[in-house]
Amino acid sequence: MNIFLGILIMILILSILTVVHEWGHFIAARIFKVRVTEFAVFMGPKIFSRKSKKTGTVFSLRLFPLGGYCAFPDDNNEADAPDSLNAQKWYKRAVIFSAGIIMNIVLALIISMILMTTGYFFTNRLESVNADSPAGFAGISAGDRLYSMNGLRTLTATDESLAAYGIKDSNDAGDVMESHYTLVYKAADGAQKSYDVYKTILYKPAGDGEGLTYDSYSYKVIEHRGKSADVTYEWAADVLSIDDEGRFATCLVKKSVDGRLVSEETADLNAAEFCTFGNSSFAVVNGKNLLEVFKCGFLELVSMVKSVYISLWWLITGKVGLDSMSGPIGLTKVVSDVVGAKAGAYLKFITLLQFTALISVNLGIINALPIPGLDGSHLLFIVIELLRGGKKIPPDKQNLISLIGLGLLILLAVVVAGMDIFKLIKG
Predict the structure, then answer these.
(1) DSSP letter (8 states) at residue 113
(2) Rounded distance between C-alpha atoms, residue 377 and residue 395, angstroms
(3) CB environment 124-162: b (16+ within 10 A), e (fewer)
(4) Which residues, at least 6 apart from 153, have a Cβ–Cβ distance to it below 8 Å?
(5) Where does residue 243 rank: exposed (0-12), middle (13-18), buried (19+ CB within 10 A)?
(6) pLDDT of residue 420
(7) 264 in helix, strand or coil?
(8) pLDDT at 280
């Protein structure tokens, strides 16, 4: 049932995003009086169509719930017609090709601002810091803002999650995890706090004989104080017990400063506080303040755009593998997991809304890339045209390049779909 519902929701999401994208092209074309021969939702054989008496545009619904398109006279070998896309001045074509991208970004911004009113989204400001936690021991306090993590500017909690995802285990042992990352905080008075964090986790077999559980956590934190000497904090916790929900742990905590032991005591800690170096207590966005909603919604949009570019860069540089990509099949699995999660309907709706915003940003950014077959390639053709003194690349050559690119994109989609299916089978 969850899979079936997940498929329906995923089709709905992709349909909305596709219509919004193509509607952007359509509206821009109509503003410049460029003829649109057909505006299609989905692909394949027509199920329904209606021709506008005023513009001659055919509005159609097609069989296969995949994508859609906005067709111009150029697609019917009428590139020389005065109301064709190819016949327009370069800046009009640039606006028309960019409009779909812009519409996806605008939709994501609107959704982000709506999300900021829900009480489920966070700023980069710490609302509270437990003095017994590694962060509190190293001098981080409530009101401090996480300015950057591993060099990534953290405007939102989403940025922190992305940066944390990029931190890799530097120890190959199955029962040890070691990592190193940098943190920069800014206090309310503007003072900067800069840290190098070395984190080690030791695991032991779980009591039920299945899997692993935490044995100990240790942090070596070097605070860089500019002209003053650096200070080294060491915080180590032997986990004595963890509650059934895994939220709180009783630990034997040892704290040292510059190699000198300052305390050794038993403490009950929120597991998230020592698992994340204190970055689990970000303040909730004030959803009743419209200025705050707009500002944080915009920052969330910026974070989503950054996440797309950074993810692409990680793929190019090999930091993450191709198997980390997901197509419609993999995304449908994500939606199905959300639908089947043990959470309230409202929280599920919020999660799906955030998911829609992120996919909308992905659709816009990917379409902006100069890859043949995508909007970005047409913008690249316009740039080349300007560099050639206004001499256009012949439409038939543009179509051939786009066709080759489309074939490669379909091949990539097949590969990604195969990996998604393999991951589903593997579980």
Answers:
(1) H
(2) 13
(3) bbbeebbebbbbbbbbbbebbbbbbbbebebbbbbbbeb
(4) 147, 159
(5) exposed
(6) 65
(7) strand
(8) 66
pTM value? 0.87
Decide: 417 and 327 in contact? Cβ < 8 Å.
yes
pLDDT value of residue 113: 97
How many whole angstroms separate alpha carbon 376 and alpha carbon 382?
Answer: 10
Q: Which residue's structure tokens are 């697609």?
A: 75
**Token pair for 219:** 């942090």
Beta strands in 102-230 (DSSP E): 122-126, 145-149, 152-153, 176-186, 192-205, 212-224
Give every residue of the chain whose pLDDT is below 50, as ranges.
Answer: none
Measure the CA–CA gap between 231 and 245, rounded to whole angstroms: 36
Nearest-5° Cα angle at 424, 420 to 427: 135
Report CA-CA distances (Å) from 215 to 53, 205, 208, 251, 277: 73, 9, 15, 10, 17
Q: What are phi and psi of 163, to 5 degrees?
A: -65, -40
3-class DSSP assignment, residue 287? coil
Closest by Cα among 84, 99, 95 to 22: 99
Q: Are 68 and 43 in contact (CB under 8 A)?
A: yes
CB burial class (10 A; 0-12, 13-18, 19+) of residue 21? buried
**Res 132: pLDDT:** 80
What six digits make up the tokens of 254? 């040892």
pLDDT of amino acid 424: 63
Q: Residue 199: which of 135, 267, 130, 132 has the closest Cα?
A: 135
Domain boundaries, the chain: 2-115+354-426, 124-284
